TrEMBL record:
One of its GO terms (molecular function) is DNA-binding transcription factor activity. GO terms for cellular component: cytosol. InterPro entries: Tscrpt_reg_Rrf2, WH-like_DNA-bd_sf, WH_DNA-bd_sf. Transmembrane segments: none annotated. Pfam families: Rrf2 (PF02082). Gene3D superfamilies: Winged helix-like DNA-binding domain superfamily/Winged helix DNA-binding domain. Coiled coil: none annotated. This is Rrf2 family transcriptional regulator.
Amino acid sequence: MRHDTRLSRMLHVLIHMDRHEGAATSETIAAMLGTNAVVVRRTMAGLRDQGYVRSEKGHGGGWVLARPLRKITLLDIHKALGAPQLFSIGLAGDNPNCVIEQAVNASLAEAMSEGEAILLAKFAKVTLAALAEQSSERWAQASNCAAAMEDF
């Protein structure tokens, strides 16, 4: 089964956009993601509609952030992407009159609902600025490792 990676990919794009000077074209973003520019435009339009990015027309135009990363959370982007389903587990519906299926479905639905609430609460606490900071720290560590290997 294929996973929905839109949230991860858009978080990645938005942090790159923050570090990129000037606007990022749909074509540039598409090349980075290995997808089609039309897919990027459609996805970015949803983020634009929610006020997270804006498009600039003309020469040097493209997509730019409309808010600082510290004012955008994982939950914001999750919602802007249409709140994709968080879990791939589904409930059975083959025998809706079966009391065993009903009990199993009720238990699974309750657990998934509780898990989703916890996950979404965590998403609300994590800003894109925090992710950008973590990536900078990882970059510094990787650079230190590379420098140490050169000396080896």
